[in-house]
Amino acid sequence: MSFAHNETSWRQKNDKAAKLLSLFAVETILLRDTIVRMELIALLRKMERI
Predict the structure, then answer these.
(1) Running DSSP on this structure, what letter comes out for residue 6?
(2) Domain-by-domain residue ranges, the chain?
(3) Residue closest to 6 by CA, chosen among 40, 43, 14
(4) For the chain, where are the E strands, in sequence order?
């Protein structure tokens, strides 16, 4: 009984960690996309000046 309970709570903690990691990964990807966009816009503005 207690083994099954420990197993379940460990799984729940693992799921929480996995969800946090995937959220962090998504945030990182979005942030990277935003930075790339900002760099592209800056490049386009430089090209317009030339």
Answers:
(1) H
(2) 25-50
(3) 14
(4) none
The tens digit of pLDDT for each residue in 15-40 reads: 999 999 999 999 999 999 999 999 99
| Degrees to nearest 5, angle at CA 29 with 21 and 22 | 15
Can you say whether residue 18 is alpha, beta or left, with left for phi > 0 and alpha for psi between -120 and 50 degrees? alpha
Q: Is the pTM of this model over 0.85?
A: no
**Residue 31, by phi and psi: left (phi above 0), alpha (psi -120 to 50) or beta?**
alpha
The continuous run of DSSP H or E covering 32 comes out as helix 2-49
Under 8 Å CB-to-CB from 43, ≥6 apart: which residues?
none
